[in-house]
């Protein structure tokens, strides 16, 4: 079994000094670091195989196309999807959600329809719905969150009661406070009331297994860069009959069957939604993320991250005046906190001086900050390559920072 | 006669020159922030908020005897420290002098990282806003 120290060697970026101290990277919810295998795949593609895909008949185009489509297969397997043509490449979770809003939403929402989002959402899972709702005369309603950071399921049931909800859009895991939402129950309830449901998996994919069929998901969206892959690649999974019924999104190359000035016919899934030259290199390199994750001992990610969450929560709770925001019983390895008498930004600036990277601010979840009546939080988010020793140094430095500020 | 803008910059460079590690420097900055008088609530208006900051920063400006006076406040103490230095350098000078001021002290005291956009602590926005006030008042004068 590989030790965490050995695993850390797979991530070149972790081995560096920042402001004279060894880097401690606790901003994994913003983006995860990349194993060397992903970096090598990126470099190999550009060095050996670079070509445009799907149209060329030469050797390089064939190699690039095969590698690109192999990633789609690996994602299908990662999500346990029915088929690989239900895996649509986008530029990120945000783009995946916008695609659904602008195609499914445009075709299906009518005046008076309700769209449910939760108070835990990232702006990316709020604003696209507000935009299409405004256009269609539909209404965006909010599933409230309890003080613990858990969604209020009673309120959710009530919101669904009148069967006027067309779509529910919730995250699997809250980016700001780490709550894991009971998506199975939420999916079943949505379906029982005739609503479709989109799950934003941006924050869950790096931490837990996914099975879109077992959950009976209508849509699932996530980003490669939060799953140890490159930036600029996102995924949208959808049920076949829904995807097929949706109008195309952007027009252009790749998404067409035949084009003439008297009319154009569209390509089949998934190409119907993939206009233009995609992010070939990063999609191909993303393939190495899955190989890397599969090479890890089963259960290691969950075990290590749970240990880090428990330890960090214990240690941080001992700091005077520190309040953890979001204490749901089911959480990923994220601790969002405030310290009495200090502003998160000051904490973040000073921790950076110690080489410690955390996130401070509203985490693109302003409605959640408004709900708790706070300006923002300090957020430490862990990945399996983080260690208890790093948490120890983080806590020591945090105490020093608080002394400086108070 | 008050110190010129560049005299004050030199003064700050000298003060910060006394510190050889970052922690002392930041403790001094935090101290400056704590000592900044701040603003009463009537000036903490939406109009006075400087956009582009992670913490809220309010900047209030007015003319007195041909000189532009700045007062400011923030929720974050390091930001208050930064703006306190800007006030010390720029406040009380003519709009024309403020507009043409080259704020080289920020780099010389090792705080230029706070000018970076990613910081979103808005030092850059603060400077810009102060110069905008100077421009507005110089065209009125």
Automatic annotation (TrEMBL), chain A:
It catalyses: (sulfur carrier)-H + L-cysteine = (sulfur carrier)-SH + L-alanine. InterPro entries: Aminotrans_V_dom (IPR000192), Cys_dSase_SufS (IPR010970), Cysteine_dSase (IPR016454), PyrdxlP-dep_Trfase (IPR015424), PyrdxlP-dep_Trfase_major (IPR015421), PyrdxlP-dep_Trfase_small (IPR015422). Its EC number is 2.8.1.7. The keyword Cell wall biogenesis/degradation does not apply. It is an enzyme of class 2 (transferase). CDD domains: SufS_like. This is Probable cysteine desulfurase. It comes from Aquirufa beregesia.
């Amino acid at each position: 079994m590989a030790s965490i120290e050995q695993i850390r060697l797979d991530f070149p970026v972790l081995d560096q000094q920042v402001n004279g101290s060894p880097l401690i990277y606790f901003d994994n919810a913003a983006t995860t670091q990349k194993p060397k295998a992903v970096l090598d795949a990126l470099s190999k593609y550009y060095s050996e195989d670079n070509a445009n895909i799907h149209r060329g008949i030469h050797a390089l185009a064939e190699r690039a196309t095969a590698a690109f489509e192999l990633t789609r297969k690996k994602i299908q397997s990662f999500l346990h999807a029915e088929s690989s043509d239900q895996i649509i490449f986008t530029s990120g979770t945000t783009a995946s959600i916008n695609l659904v809003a602008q195609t499914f939403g445009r075709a299906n929402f009518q005046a008076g329809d309700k769209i449910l989002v939760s108070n835990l959402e990232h702006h990316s899972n709020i604003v696209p719905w507000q935009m299409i709702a405004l256009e269609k005369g539909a209404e965006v309603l909010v599933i409230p969150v309890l003080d613990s950071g858990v969604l209020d399921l009673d309120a959710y049931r009530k919101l669904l009661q009148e069967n006027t909800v067309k779509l529910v859009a919730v995250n699997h895991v809250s980016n700001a406070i780490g709550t894991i939402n009971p998506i199975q129950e939420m999916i079943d309830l949505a379906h029982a009331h005739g609503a479709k449901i989109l799950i934003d998996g941006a924050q869950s994919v790096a931490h837990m297994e996914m099975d879109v069929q077992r959950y009976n998901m209508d849509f699932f969206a996530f980003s490669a860069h939060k799953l140890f892959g490159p930036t600029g690649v996102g995924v949208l999974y959808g049920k076949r009959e829904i995807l097929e019924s949706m109008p195309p999104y952007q027009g252009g190359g790749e998404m067409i069957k035949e084009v003439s000035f008297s009319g154009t016919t569209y390509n089949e899934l998934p190409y119907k939604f993939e206009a233009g030259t995609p992010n070939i290199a990063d999609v191909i390199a993303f393939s190495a993320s899955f190989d890397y994750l599969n090479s890890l001992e089963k259960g290691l990610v969950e075990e290590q991250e749970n240990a880090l969450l428990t330890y960090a929560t214990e240690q941080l709770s001992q700091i005077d005046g520190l309040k953890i925001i979001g204490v749901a019983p089911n959480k990923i390895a994220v601790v969002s906190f405030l310290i009495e008498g200090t502003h998160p930004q000051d904490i973040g600036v000073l921790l950076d001086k110690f080489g410690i990277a955390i996130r401070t601010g509203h985490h693109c979840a302003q409605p959640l900050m408004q709900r708790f009546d706070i300006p923002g939080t300090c957020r430490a988010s862990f990945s399996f390559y983080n260690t208890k020793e790093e948490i120890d140094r983080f806590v020591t430095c945090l105490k020093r920072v608080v002394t400086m500020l108070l | 006669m008050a110190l010129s803008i560049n005299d004050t910059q030199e003064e700050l460079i000298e003060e910060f020159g006394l510190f050889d590690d970052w922690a002392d420097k930041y403790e001094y900055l935090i101290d400056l922030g704590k000592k900044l008088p701040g603003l009463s609530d009537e000036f903490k208006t939406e109009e006075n908020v400087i956009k582009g900051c992670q913490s809220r920063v309010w900047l209030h400006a007015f003319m007195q005897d041909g000189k532009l006076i700045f007062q400011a406040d923030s929720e974050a103490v390091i930001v208050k420290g930064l703006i306190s230095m800007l006030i010390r350098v720029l406040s009380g000078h003519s709009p024309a002098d403020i507009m043409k001021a080259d704020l080289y002290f920020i780099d010389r005291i090792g705080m230029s990282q706070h000018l970076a956009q990613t910081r979103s602590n808005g030092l850059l926005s603060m400077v810009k806003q102060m110069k905008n006030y100077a421009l507005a008042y110089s065209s009125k004068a």
